[in-house]
Amino acid sequence: MPELPEVEALKDFLTEHLVGQGVTRVLPVAISVLKTYDPPLTALEGRAVTSVDRHGKFLDLATDGGPHLVTHLARAGWLHWKDTLPDAPPKPGKGPLALRVALESGAGFDLTEAGTKKKLAVYVVRDPGDVPGVARLGPDPLADDFDEVRFAELLDGERRQIKGALRDQSLIAGVGNAYSDEILHAARMSPFKLTGSLTPDDVHTLYESLRSTLTDAVERSRGVAAGRLKAEKKSGLRVHGRTGEPCPVCGDTVREVSFSDSSLQYCPTCQTGGKPLADRRMSRLLK
User: What distance lies between CA 90 and its chain's CA centroid?
Assistant: First the structure.
């Protein structure tokens, strides 16, 4: 799933390639991707893109005096930039193409989604705050005013596992499954540690790991073409998606806990005192 660093990189890429260009056509290929109907997609046509912003994992394309095109790429969605779009309009079918945006220059981009679970979402709204997912976002962890005091205030009163807290978009915007694994590995903290047990030193370590992990990932992605961002993300991950490989810090074997629709990865030596976590839902440390 694209998370804050990849969406931030897409925002930068589209700012360079898209701002100032006029939209000529917006072509939905998979109707299910469109989550709003007023304003219609046609309201975007004939307008220039004035800015590209990010709200958590949402991309927001603003047009001149008109609506915003807001996109959430979900788990398997992606944006493919094309310097020259095909002349023939896309045909609805069972392929991954969900929506195409054509520009007056002849360039444009496709939104695609792999797999059978279709979660990619596109909204045409007068204000990005009209998108429910955007409206309930917590603060952005890379914002200038997101300091350690604010982070501690967010965690104060929480009574759950820290992995779940980091992924909660209403608590902190933009962190998903992959980067929560990376943040906790950098912090040398178990994903099942309870937020209520965090000491001030724990909060400090976690805050520093959160900021540094995301900042480093954004810097690695900066300037990378949209088509190479997925590979760049994977190459920079130390534990997530690396089950069975050696931990780059200590050499222990990276382990996994599987759930019904996701999994997490961690290093026992770095994060759980050398003890493996039980690979079942509601896992606890093995005795």
Answer: 27
Instruction: Measure the CA–CA gap between 64 and 225, rounded to whole angstroms.
Output: 26
Kindly report the number of other CB atoms within 10 A of residue 279's CB atom.
13
8 A C-beta contact, residue 205 and residue 187:
yes
Tokens representing residue 198 in the block: 């965090």
Those residues with Cβ within 8 angstroms of residue 94's Cβ, 6 or more apart along the chain or in another chain: none
Q: How far apart are CA 233 and CA 230, in angstroms?
A: 5
User: How far is Cα 230 from Cα 164, in angstroms, rounded to an integer?
Assistant: 24
* Rg, C-alpha atoms of the chain: 20
Residue 172 amino acid letter: I
Pairing, β 77-82 against β 263-266: unpaired
Q: How far apart are the C-alpha atoms of 76 and 63, rounded to whole Å?
A: 26
Q: What is the DSSP letter of 275?
A: P
Cα gap 4→141, rounded to integer Å: 9
Q: Report pTM.
A: 0.92
- Measured over the CA atoms of residue 103, residue 108, residue 113 and residue 119, the dihedral's sign is negative
- For CA atoms 159, 165, 170, 171, give the dihedral sign: positive
Instruction: For residue 274, report the phi and psi dihedrals to the nearest 5 degrees.
Output: 85, -5
pLDDT per residue rounded down to tens, the chain (287 residues): 789 999 999 999 999 999 999 999 999 999 899 999 999 999 999 999 999 999 999 999 999 988 999 999 998 999 999 999 998 888 887 789 999 999 999 999 999 998 878 899 999 999 999 999 999 999 999 999 999 999 999 999 899 999 999 999 999 999 999 999 999 999 999 999 999 999 999 999 999 999 999 999 999 888 777 777 777 888 889 999 999 999 999 999 999 999 878 899 999 999 999 999 987 644 444 43
